[in-house]
Every structure is written in C-alpha cells, then in structure tokens.
Amino acid sequence: DVTYAPALEGRAQVAARQGDKENALEYYARLLEVVPGNEDAGIALAQEQGVKGDIAGAVAILEGTAKNNPIAVDARRILVRLLLIEGDTRKAEIYAAEAVELSPSDPMVRLAKVTSDNASGRTAEAARSLQDMVDGDEDLPRDAYLLLARLRQNDGLYRQAAEALEEWYTDHPDDDAVAILLANVELQFDPESAAGRFEALAQEAGNETRAKAAAINNLAIAYDLAGDSRAEATARQARELLPDDPSVADTLGWILAKNGNLDEALDLLKLATAESNGNPTMVFHLAWTMAETGDLDGARERVEALLADPALDFPEQSEAEILLQRLNNN
C-alpha cells in the first residue's frame, strides 16, 4: 500500500499523463489525506468537482488546501474565480489579496485581483490595473482584454475599448467573436472603420446564412451612421437572408423611417417590436416613426411606457426624453 507522499504524487502524475483519470484522482485523494496542503492534489480534485458542477465542493477542497499551505498561490487564485461564481465577493477579496502578496508579479494572479476588484465595485481601480498590464505587454489571456474593453465601454470610452480589443485581435486575427465585438464598439465613434470590418466578416461568413445576415445587418447600420447611401439596399439584403429576425426588420425599418418611407417603416417596426418582446430601442424607433406619421397619441403612449421604468436603461433614452417633450408640446 503506497502511503509515502512522493510515491503517491508520482503515481498520480503518471496516471494523469497516461489519461487514467480515475487512478490519478484516487492517488491525489490519498495524497491530500497524507499532505492536506498539497496544491497539485487539491487543484486536481477541485477541478473534478467543478466538472461535476459542484462549485461548493471545489471551494471546500481548495480552502482546505490554502489553509494547510500558506504559499499555495494557484489554489488561492482559482478560489477567487470560484467564489465569484458563488457570489462571495468578500472571501474572493481575501484570497485575491493573499495571492498578490505571495506572487505580486504573476499576471494571472494580478488578473484574479482585478476580477475581484471589478466584482466588488472597484471598477476604476480594476480598469487602471488592467490597462497597466496591457501596456506592460504581459502575456494575458483573452478574458483580460475583453474585461478591459467592457470596463472602458461602461465608462463611455469607446476608443479605448476598441484599442483593448485591437491589442488582442492583432495577434489573433482568426478570433471572429472579437472581430465582431471590435466592429460593434467602433460603430460608436468610427462607423466607416466598422463598416470595413463588417464587410470582411460578411465575406468570411460565406454561405453560413445567419452569420452572413448578421454581418450584413451590422454593415447596414454602419453605412447608415456614416451617411453612406448604400445603407438601405444593404439592410434589404440582410432582410432577404433573415426575413423573420426582428433585429434585421428593425434595422431596415429605422433606415426607411429616416429616409421618409414611413408606411413600409411602420409595418417593419411594428413587427420587430412585437417579435422582440418590446426591445426598448425598437420601441423608440416605432414611437418616433408613429410621431412622424401623425399618430401622436400612439407615440406618446409608447415613450411614456419606456421612460416610466427607472430601472430601464437603453442607448436612446435621452432621445426618447426629447421626443416625449416634443409630443407633449403638440
């Protein structure tokens, strides 16, 4: 019977390398009984609990490991992520601080601290730390750039958000998800650049209907924001590909409304609003168009409903307030 710790650890590692998960976990479990603070064993067993969906069980294992091993940096770093999943920001902060104290220059440890700060509401501090890490050319995972971009967006700093995404995308040009995020962020300050990205995405989508239609729909939005006369024709192309998609119907309807084609726009926007369960942006587009057609009561009813909910936050909120003032003055 193998009870000597190095032998148990060696057998666990060999079994893991050979793909013998069952025996590896068995040896790690026995190792953790002999050496309660063995970090490799604790992490391996916690990961297995995580795979099973038992986050609380994984946390319990790693907390035991951290308690018995004052230098277990990775156990503490992983605990931060698991505790945030459980919503325990207080404990996450404690383990994040301990991990940083143990390994202040480790980018993964610093990222855990940033994630904890963000979850605890210290978003400005989190953004500053992340920006320092990105500027320092540290080897960071994709999530770091996505988090920095999201924090910059939340502060209305769209150009800085795009820069964070571009930093990742430059080295990972096959990451279409980030390409889409980057193009959508650029819509806020440089629609012409966003249009170029959506043109490329539409071409890359090939015959994949939904992906192609989504790219073409966003391209129509970019053209519209850039004042490009191709916006309407492009939106119609997207609708031909996805005739039942409410966001596609909304894009075409909104472009038509601003171009003065109110009857067709109204039909499309009513359809989009109904099928999207009252998406606030689409409701605003419909209300604006109704006001243009002379249906002031219908427009007012919809705008008042939008603005009556103090918890509702949508990009066109200030425009909706201006529209309501105009309607009330008539």
Keywords:
330 residues; mainly alpha
Q: How would you describe the overall organization of this protein?
A:
The protein has 330 residues and is mostly helical. It starts with a helix and ends with a helix. The longest helix is centred in the middle third of the chain and has 17 residues, at 209-225. It is elongated, with a radius of gyration of 26 Å. It has helices spanning 5-17, 21-34, 39-51, 55-68, 73-86, 89-102, 107-119, 123-135, 142-154, 158-171, 176-186, 191-205, 209-225, 231-241, 246-258, 262-275, 280-293, 296-308, 317-328. The chain is 77% helix and 0% strand.
Strand content: under 5%
Stretches where pLDDT is under 50 for at least 5 consecutive residues are none
Helix content: over 70%
The radius of gyration is 26 Å
Tally of helical runs: 19
Secondary structure category: mainly alpha
Mean pLDDT: 94
Distance between the termini: 90 Å
Number of strands: 0
What layout of secondary structure does this protein have?
Elements: H1 5-17, H2 21-34, H3 39-51, H4 55-68, H5 73-86, H6 89-102, H7 107-119, H8 123-135, H9 142-154, H10 158-171, H11 176-186, H12 191-205, H13 209-225, H14 231-241, H15 246-258, H16 262-275, H17 280-293, H18 296-308, H19 317-328
Helix pairs in contact: 1-2, 2-3, 3-4, 4-5, 5-6, 5-7, 6-7, 7-8, 8-9, 9-10, 10-11, 11-12, 12-13, 13-14, 13-15, 14-15, 15-16, 15-17, 16-17, 17-18, 18-19
